[in-house]
Amino acid sequence: MLTAGQKKLLVELKSSLAESVPEGQISESDYAAKGYHLDVRLQKGGVRRVAQIMLDRRFILETVTAVDFIDSFELVYLYSTYYQQQVRLLVRIRIAKDAQPYSVSAIYPGAIWLEREVYDFFGIRFQEHPDLKRIINPDEADYFPLLKNFGKTKFTDQIDDILC
Amino acid sequence: MEVKGSPICMPSKGFQVESKEIPGVVGFAPVQDLLNLARVNALWPLTFGIACCAIEMMAAGVARFDWDRFGIIPRGTPRQSDVMVVAGTIPHKLVSTIQTLYDQMPAPKYVIAMGNCAISGGPFSYDGQYAIVNGADKIIPVDVYIPGCPPRPEALLQGFIKIQTKMTKGIIDANRRAEKAARRAKK
Amino acid sequence: MLNIKTIDDATISQRVYQLNLGPQHPSTHGVMHLLLTLDGEVVVKIEPIIGYSHRGHEKMAENRIYEQFLPNPARMDYLSGMIFNHGYCMAVEKLCGIEVPRRAEYIRVITSELNRIASHFIGTMDYAMGLGAITPFLWGWDDRENILDLLEMISGSRLTYSYGRFGGVRNDITKEFYDGTRKFIDRLRSRFWDYENLINQNVIFIKRSRDVGVITTEDALAFGVTGPTLRGSGVKYDVRKNEPYSAYPEFKFEIPTRKEGDCLARYQVRMAELEQSINIIEQALDHLPPGPVRAKVPRFVTPPEGDCYVTFESARGAAGFYIVSDGTRVPYRIKVRAPSFSNLFVLTKICPGHFLADIVAIFGSIDVTVPEIDR
User: Fold this and answer.
1) Which ipTM score applies to this complex?
2) What CATH number should be reported for the domain holding residue B120?
3) How far apart are CA B170 and CA C306, in angstroms?
4) Alpha carbon distance C260, C1 (integer Å)
5) Is residue B36 situated within a structural domain?
6) Does domain C9-374 have CATH number 1.20.1050.10?
7) Best interface-test mutation with C: which of A62, A144, A162 has the largest number of C CBs within 10 A?
8) DSSP symbols for B34-91
């Protein structure tokens, strides 16, 4: 159940986000089932505008990740706060396979490493990133491991053999 | 051989000398055996803990299991160690590091592969794994394999005792075996 | 402390040099490679190089059914393996809508707190050993062995646990575990004075930790720092209080914080958290409810399509699992939020200007676990 402070913060966030990214869809989600309060779906851009609003409101960028949906990527940014009432946001944006999104590292310096990791595993190049190079895989690797067409992905057939 | 009194060091088997006048305060043995005895009780490992097994290796060193009573003192540099304990999974980025460290160790040197990951890739080896090397013996010659995920500290101590047994029995270390094989292959 | 903001080109050619600290080094905890740019003895720039412990957990998750992935979380952060294991079970339960019986929640809390105490022993005493104190290291690890005996009684494993299952835990706790835990926490309370007299007031320890590696709240906000590293800088943030999960809402405990933000503050926060964990364990043992320890779940869970994010407090900070499911028995994507990843990056901001010997202290006080960073 949301407290009064959380409800007020959610209302404020929704209004300021809707103001700066009018083309985004902002919906409240069931925290008990999803683990986040607000689900912000951006269409064409606005990642940096959202990040600036969150920093001004004293939120932290907890993690940046991507999901490979065979014909597109979905970039996911997770924000949470340690100052006010606990409110958690998930910001997602669908980008094309060869898109080059803007980096938020000018706003959140912690994103430098987080975006390097996304580049290392998916091959997504971020524009205006100060130091875009591999971080976890060897420097001379020529593969992006977490893509769905790399290595083995679905194991379901063999699993039935093993378990039955 | 019968030695009167209590000998300072045990003579090796098969050495036949009958001597009633000598009071028996010394024994006789080949120099190599004496050297082995000294080396066996002062095995200094290069602690190269990579992942979870490193914690059990450290646990083998502290108060409850205490490898110091075997003469094992961990050294920070490969130049002063004669055993390398590879404890953990080996990703591709680490391969050149392990090879450099192994080459820096002076011979005779031994390698203990501790844990399932160092033996054969362990729980992380599956068809399609891109990140790890399936076992330490793909890159360096290994003497003793200690299975477990992670193996108990007592298992690591038993691994050290196995190396001690190999040393006193005169079995050559894996490094020399690999060198001999390489020389034979070149011929 | 010298205040170095710019590097002169002439200086680079003459005095500034690069030094590799690691990947094999006695005082880096794990395979961590710190590339230091030094001006004499003073650090000008520090670049942590990671990836020496990468095992591909996230790709492995796409090749395993949910149950087969259970051993993996404990191997990510092996010092809080039980906490990660329970966190992963919580994530799948949230996705599937499985409800966990109360007794299982209590057992999860007890084992998680025992794991947290064990991890903090390593965190604090490895830090002390990095500064040169050997005896606290031996004492801390010996106290930790008692905890490992307890956890081995019920789970069978000393370090990498797979005790949690979807819907609860694998088996119930025994009377031996119950009595042993009671005896352990009684003994631990008296041990705090031993540590206080041994190391906490030591002059060298305090001089090497006071005002070294100060993390301001602005830095913490910008880099996403969490855990005892953050609480040493005065921010009272703990997932167990801010976003309570499992049975934590039913227990009364404090969140210790310190204002200074230096290495000594982080060390003191960890030592103070030991006492809070003991309080939680005592309350849980006093009010342990009867009942089943595992809900009835299908043999192979098939979560509905969608995603969910679950966060929990590991010994190093706020960790989390983000699971995307496509309706089959194999996860579509599992992303692990590792607290050490963000905590390590803040070093690039706070280390410049310190001496080389302070780097060891700062790195030890942040208390990272390298395989968690690399996953």
Assistant:
1) 0.90
2) 3.40.50.12280
3) 63
4) 17
5) no
6) no
7) A62
8) HHHHHHHTT--EEEEE-SHHHHHHHHHHSTTT-GGGGT---BSSGGG-SEEEEES-EE
Report pTM. Answer: 0.89
Q: How far is B133 from chain C (nearest CA, A)?
A: 10
d(CA C281, CA C283): 5
Q: Note the CATH architecture for domain A4-163.
A: 2-Layer Sandwich (3.30)
Quickly list H helices, C1-132: 9-14, 57-61, 71-76, 81-96, 102-130
CB A108 to CB C222 under 8 A? yes
Q: Which of B93, B127, B130 sits opposite A145 (nearest CB)?
A: B130
Both tokens of C127, joined, read 């830090």
How many structural domains is chain B composed of? 1
- Residue C71: how many CB atoms within 10 A of its CB? 17
Residues A22-69 have pLDDT tens digits of 888 888 888 888 888 888 888 887 888 888 988 888 889 999 999 988
Continuous segment of H or E residues that includes residue A162: helix A156-163
For chain B, which chains pass the contact test of at least 3 CB pairs under 8 Å? A, C
pLDDT, tens only, B15-70 = 545 555 555 555 667 788 888 888 888 899 987 888 888 999 999 988 899 899 99
Give A137's contacts in chain B (Cβ within 8 Å).
93, 131
Pair of tokens at residue C10: 């002439």
Which residue is it, tokens 């292959």? B185
**What angle do the packed helices B52-61 and C135-155 form, to 10 degrees?**
120
Q: Closest approach of chain A CAs to the CA of C360, in angstroms?
A: 22
Closest-CA residue of chain B to A145: B130
Number of neighbouring beta carbons within 10 Å of residue B125: 17
- For every residue of C227-272, DSSP letters joined together read THHHHTTT----HHHHS--TTGGGS-------SS-SHHHHHHHHHH
- Domain boundaries along the sequence of chain C: 9-374
Q: What share of chain C is helix, strand, coil (3-state, %, to 5)?
A: 50, 15, 35
Which amino acid appears at position C34 of this protein? L
Pairing of strands B83-87, B110-114: parallel
